[in-house]
Amino acid sequence: MSKQHVQTTINGESTEFLCETSQTLLDVLRNELHMTGTKEGCGTGDCGACSVTLDGELVCSCLVFGAEVHGKRIETIEGMAPANDLHPLQRQFLEHAGLQCGICTPGILVAARELLKHHPDPSEEQVRYWLAGNLCRCTGYNKIIEAVLAAAREIRETHHHA
Amino acid sequence: MPESVFEPGQGVVKVTLAGAFEPLTTEPQTFDLAVSNVRGVLRELDARVPGLAALLEEESAVAIDGVIHEIIYTQPLAPGTEVYFIPRLESG
Amino acid sequence: MLKKTDAANIPVELIGSSPVRPDGVPKVTGMAQYGADYALPGMLWGKVLRSPHAHARVASIDTSRAQALPGVKAVMTAADMPDQDFTYQGPERVQVNFWHMTRSVMAREKVLFAGHPVAAVAATTEAIAREALGLIEVKYEVLPHVIDVDQAMQGDAPLLFEDMITRGNEQAKPSNVSRLKTFQAGDLEAGFAKADEIVELSFKTEPVHQGYIEPHAALARWGADGQSEVWSSSQGHFVVRAFTAQLLGLNVSDVVVHPAEIGGGFGGKTLVYLEPLALTLSKLTGYPVKMVMTREEVFEATGPTSGSSMTVKMGVTRDGTIVAADGTFKLQAGAFPGSPVLNAAMCAFSVYEIENARAVAYDVVSNRPKAVAYRAPGSPIAAFAVESVVDELARRIGMDPIDLRLKNAVGPGSSTIWGPKHAHGGYRETLEALKNHPAYQQPLGPNQGRGVASGFWFNGGGESAATIHVAEDGSIALATGSMDVGGSRASMALMAAETLGVPYASVRSTVSDTASIGYNHVTGGSRVTYATGMAVVQACQKVIDDLRSRAAMIWDIDVDHVVWDDGAAKPVSAEVGDFAPLTLKEIAAKRAVTGGPIVAEVAINAGGQAPGFSSQFCDVEVDPETGAVKVLRYVAAQDVGRAIHRRYVEGQIEGGVAQGIGWALNETYIYNDKGHLENAGFLDYRVPVASDLPMIEALIVEVANPNHPFGVKGVGEVNIVPVMAAMANAIRDATDVRLTALPMSPPAVLAALEDSGANARMNEAVSA
Fold first, then answer.
1. A132 contact residues in C (CB cutoff 8 A)
2. Has residue B32 been placed in a domain?
């Protein structure tokens, strides 16, 4: 059986790849395109470590087939930072110690960026419920929430002054 | 069995095997030993219970006046020190 | 040797701050490489065939059809690894018996749990490797199985090892009890006779998994010259090297292990699962082999902590003196001996000064994966029982639970059940911090309750090595062999920068592979900031002595007249001469003429560590209709000696508490009657999510350990110890019902409320 030929856009770059029908987007990203920033924690959509956006919607890439993204737009953790700089979320995660082992961090950053696009001034409760699909076993979530709220503040202030 | 001879410069150190170190010992025991470091303790214990030194080196840590240490031969022991050999720890 | 230091009183500039860690940017940009992120040219994929039976004899394995599948390059069984002698080596409770370990890594005569590895395949793609597994024919003779610890101890229980005699009870006939040990002090009968109130309760806990988000992964490359390389996520690449070499019959130095970044361990990655298999497959195929576990495999086949069955009896006088304590702790070891029951027995009563006490420990094998360390292994389990009983004692005599603990609190000189006296304080201070917290006095609403609990953990020392190189421009390269799980590279850099008197940003902190630095024991046991930190500081001191002697050479004076102060060499006084200070950069520029590169390595076997103490309270609200427990507030006080990196210290406390909350309320293993795990995934193995928890409040208490240059006490583990008891005590306070089994999930809480009629009372309270 021949492979699927897929054309897509990843982090703004036009990309094409070949994949088996059964391969997930997560598998394609990590093992065909060598973009290992997106992590596999469970393979069944329960942990959120593999979060990416697909046509602007937050998804678990382990629940999407590689073949499904033909003609669509994908954004991963590798595209989050502008060249040689950091997104406010990334910077605040470092300042606030929002990571310990860091394996859940790419998925949480992608999810948090979507949150702030839709809710630029979230409450603590809103952040907690939005991120409920992203498991973290190290931090107890305290500093993740603090970092997201701090980034939200920073982004609002930047836009305010822009 | 060699007798403990108290030599000048060596004080008496109280050494307890806290628990059994099978198969060589089956219950806690306490000894008063004339030694000045941990190597001396192991030597004296081994003279009383052949093979015990190797077993202790492998399987135990040592508490010196309550402070836990790995077994290091040259660790000095002042007269009147209390030494316990305790089972080594697992950690996670 | 240890030098007592004035650790508490040294003025510091950098220690206690919270700078960004060296691996921070790679981790937030997706560039950091974890075990599954490595690849090599020509790499094959490996997959493991696992037993479908919980207990069976392996009659035969036929791999021929699998070998014939196009794309399959090798199939291995245990026959491809040398067998090991049956001897217990090293620390008995870690149970390093390689006869057991090789069988745990891959089965030989028997399979002992559903998920036990039986064979493995290397193929050109993962899909082909998976397909090949289905073509391996294994003939099993299925045997009856037993999983629960109490059932495994019954006289008619199926035996995992037909000839296993209990060490510590050699007269009994073969059983599933691998070890029986008693710790005792004083006279129990006399003690209980003095008591005004006696409480005796029995407890049952289910096994829980460490729950790291990153599944195990390894990449191995065998060279035709017998030199191998392994990349894996572990908590100790030197231990990975040692175990892999032993299991495959190799010289230790012929295996180089590279430390990948690790996505969580908590004790569960202090040993090997995939590395020996991947390396064997690489040897058989001549290509590198990569193996990554699925989440199902992690739950089915890697070691959780033990389930337990416990009984604790304690007696107290009316004035609050605990006069006697007696505990029996039966812990599940899994398929091979080695539960953390001895730790449990030793830690159980260790926060209390009790003259008459006994702890009896049973290590029991049963048909599930071998138990592995999980954050203060054994201590949280015992604490659930002991701290629940102490709570009942406080109620019986009408005493505040913190006051009861203060009355019996250990301090320096207090005795222990396992022999030596306590040498360190800190416990009392954690209780006082809790008592002084403003929220402790705040009143609660209907169906709300408050619970208090304390915990103890030994903390570790052991072997660590650190190397410092002063680069040509005076910047510092710092390397250790301690895997960084949660930011320790930053803490090492802080301690080095503080000692040398240089900016944090001029210190580059890395972790070296096993070929590049001396032996380092695992990253676990709350030992790295203590022991590896000590090695780092001593290495810096050696560098300082070297820098002073080079300055002396440059100035042509005696080295005793040179001091190191604020990052520069200076003459000790004006009499010595008029010399401007020489910075690291200036001395480094002159390194060649003063003798060559400026380097120091220190390797130690650290002792003198202080134990961890934590005291905690929590407020909960129980829903009488569903049994759901909501955590309203959680306050955890812990003595850390000295916080090197403040935010990471808080993070350890917050993280341990969160794990304890999951253990208390939801986490468990659900087996069917065939011994198969039914909840082998994060959907049904329910760990806390962000919306389950409030902000956890960490109270950092600092009672310095004079044996460490900065007063450090290990911080990682003890924070999980009190949590389940604190939650049970809070639920008791809210409902008048005490749960003595974990997890206290909604159905369990609801059933307990209904049994006692409590929920009728509680519904009334809400509607009143």
1. 689-691
2. yes
- Are C522 and B68 within 8 A, CB to CB? no
Say yes or no: C487 contacts chain A, CB-CB below 8 A: yes
Range with lowest mean pLDDT among A77-91, A117-131, B64-78, C131-145: B64-78
Per-residue pLDDT of B17-59, as tens digits, reads: 876 676 787 777 899 999 999 999 999 999 998 999 988 887 7
Q: Distance (Å, rounded) from C-alpha B72 to C-alpha B87?
A: 16
Chain A interface includes C41 (CB < 8 A): no
Domain ranges of chain A: 4-79, 82-161
Q: What kind of architecture, by CATH, is found in domain C425-458+610-768?
A: 2-Layer Sandwich (3.30)
Q: How far apart are CA C27 and CA C390, in angstroms?
A: 44
CATH of domain A4-79: 3.10.20.30
C214, A41: Cβ pair inside 8 Å?
yes
Q: Read off the pLDDT of residues C305-364 as tens digits, 9 standing for 90 and up.
A: 999 999 999 999 999 999 999 999 999 999 999 999 999 999 999 999 999 999 999 999
Searching chain B, which residue's CA lies closest to the CA of residue C379? B91
> Which residues from C are below 8 Å from B27, CB to CB?
none
Q: B24, exposed or middle or buried, with CB in 10 Å at 0-12, 13-18, 19+?
A: middle
Q: Is the peptide bond before B23 cis (omega within 30 degrees of 0)?
A: yes
Lowest mean pLDDT among C5-14, C427-436, C750-759: C5-14
CATH code, residues C7-32+461-606: 3.30.365.10
Predicted pLDDT at C765:
67
Assigned fold of C38-142+213-301: Aldehyde Oxidoreductase; domain 3 (3.90.1170)
Number of inter-chain CB pairs under 8 A, A vs C: 179
CB contact under 8 A, B92 and C92: no
The whole-number pLDDT of residue B5 equals 43
CB contact C528 to B (< 8 Å): no
In the predicted structure, residue C503 carries a pLDDT above the cut 90: yes
Q: Which of C264, C652, C682 is facing A42, going by the closest CB pair?
A: C682
The CATH number corresponding to A82-161 among 3.30.930.10, 1.10.443.10, 2.60.120.260, 1.10.150.120 equals 1.10.150.120
Please give the Cα distance from A89 to A120 (Å, whole number). Answer: 12
Contact C461 B75 (CB under 8 A): no
Q: What is the DSSP string of chain A?
A: -PPEEEEEEETTEEEEEEE-TT-BHHHIIIIIS--TTS--S-SSSSS-TTEEEETTEEEEGGGSBGGGGTT-EEE-GGGSSPTTS--HHHHHHHHTT--SS-SSHHHHHHHHHHHHHH-SS--HHHHHHHGGGS--SSSTTHHHHHHHHHHHHHHHHHHHH-
B11 lies in some domain: yes
Interface of C with A in 638-667 (CB under 8 A): 647-648, 650-652, 654-659
Q: Provide the pLDDT for residue B6.
A: 44
pLDDT digits (tens, 9 = 90+) for A4-43: 999 999 999 999 999 999 999 999 999 999 999 999 999 9
Partner-chain residue, chosen from B19, B58, B82, that has the shortest CB–CB distance to C183: B19
Say yes or no for a CB contact (<8 Å) between B92 and C376. Answer: yes
Is it the case that residue C139 has pLDDT exceeding 90? yes
Q: Do residue C525 and residue B92 have CB atoms under 8 angstroms apart?
A: yes
- The mean pLDDT value of chain C amounts to 94
Which residue on chain A is closest to C216 by alpha carbon? A41
Q: Using a CB-CB distance cutoff of 8 angstroms, which residues of chain C are in contact with residue B72?
A: 605, 607
Q: How confident is the model at residue B8 (pLDDT cuts 50, 70, 90)?
A: very low
Q: Are C656 and C380 in contact (CB under 8 A)?
A: no
Residue pair C543/C594 in contact by the 8 Å Cβ criterion: no
Instruction: Tell me whether chains A and B touch (3+ CB pairs under 8 A).
Output: no
Quote the pLDDT of residue A150: 98
Question: Residue C8: its pLDDT value, please?
Answer: 63
